[in-house]
Amino acid sequence: MANISSVGVGIPSYEIKQDEVKDLVRNLFPYSKRKMDRLIPVFDNANIQKRQLVVEKDWFLEEHPFEEKNNLYMKYAEEQSLKAIDHCLDNDNHLESSIPYKAIDLLVYVSSTGIATPSLDVQIINKRPFREDIARMPLWGLGCAGGAIGLSRVYDWISANPTKTALLVCCELCSLTFQKEDVKKSNLIGTALFGDGAAALLVMGEDSSYRSKSKGTQPKIKQVHSYTKKNSMDVMGWKVSNTGLEVIFSKSIPSLVNSMWKKHVQKFLNCHGLTEPDIHSFIAHPGGKKVLEAMKESLNTSVNKLSHSYEVLKNHGNMSSVTILYVLNEWMKESIPDQSYSILSALGPGFSSELLLLEWI
User: Which of 157, 188, 213 is where one domain is finished?
Assistant: First the structure.
């Protein structure tokens, strides 16, 4: 078993409202008025009111070479990741007292919006008093599924090392991938959805000596399952160009929720003798409003069981891998009855689906 004992977030300082993004897009994209009027409702239908960025909105008015964008990524990813880690290890909502950095045996770092070698977990280790023999697991290219897949890999490692303690860190700076000259609809949709953020999860094994520091009802990972649909690489991802990372979005994503994801969830529930009424909440990555609506429909469930997915999307946008940890953070603030079940899920490039069964203890 693996116990999620604390969570922390790194929220960038620049906040932008959806109406401001709409005005920015009207000035930036060289569409005809007719085409712009046809596309701009994407922003109104995204169910996003505001989001946070690491750069001011004037930054988007100019072209920026890939090197400049990646240097900013290195700088701000370190900053926001450290903010999330510090919050996680000293979060008195979940911990009786702070967890020392030296207590962390494994650091898993998830990100897909910039490139770094050595990976960014090394920068983090250098900035805080982590042990020099800490195990490292940097994960890149998982996109929106990265938070859930990263947590599954933590579960695997902790299950094999029940006395250990791990830290999962996700950081995505989607704003820095913006392509000013890319006039494809997928770029417009990405602009309507994406935000920046970081989050960290503290996960403890059953026999970790630090479990006594936990307090309240917390989720325990019972089981995980992965599914990757073959020949679906064009559904979601990045195209690497001379100016950086261009977003790839397919309009087929909501229909894949109603087919592939629905079957995956049903099979996962059946394997554990559960049905939809047995699930207290669905901790789902909110890829967008249409994705959430497709999830609700395919599960035949209530909005209440997806409530924090809607709220996080509204207040922060889609932060790729980070978003699922923000959603989990909101559920961990609730007084969830003991021995209730939740399904944590995310979809990402591949096209892939990741599911985790959580029990609140």
Answer: 213
